[in-house]
Amino acid sequence: MSDEHKDLPPAAQRALAEAAERRRKAQAEAKEPPKELGGREGPDPARYGDWEKKGIAIDF
Q1: What is the pLDDT of residues 21-46, one digit of tens each?
Q2: pTM of model > 0.85
């Protein structure tokens, strides 16, 4: 337990320790997202607001 949490009640210290353990466990179990097969090249169209196909930008 860090020095900044020593003045907290025991219940709060336990809650912080449990939260830290859940974060460690979630990070250990986190997987990298699967690689997209056959997707478009270049910048993400959803981010930049337009789609490009054969050099022509199209908006929906």
Answers
A1: 999 999 888 887 777 787 766 666 66
A2: no
Whole-number average pLDDT of the chain: 78
Nearest to 59 by CA among 37, 46, 15, 40: 46
- Strand, helix or coil for residue 59: coil
Question: Which tokens is 48 given?
Answer: 């930049």
Cβ-contact 4, 20 below 8 angstroms: no
Amino acid at 25: K
- Report the C-alpha gap between 10 and 30 in whole angstroms: 30
Contact 50/58 with Cβ under 8 angstroms? yes
What residue type is 41 in one-letter code? E
Helix (H) or strand (E) holding 56: strand 56-58
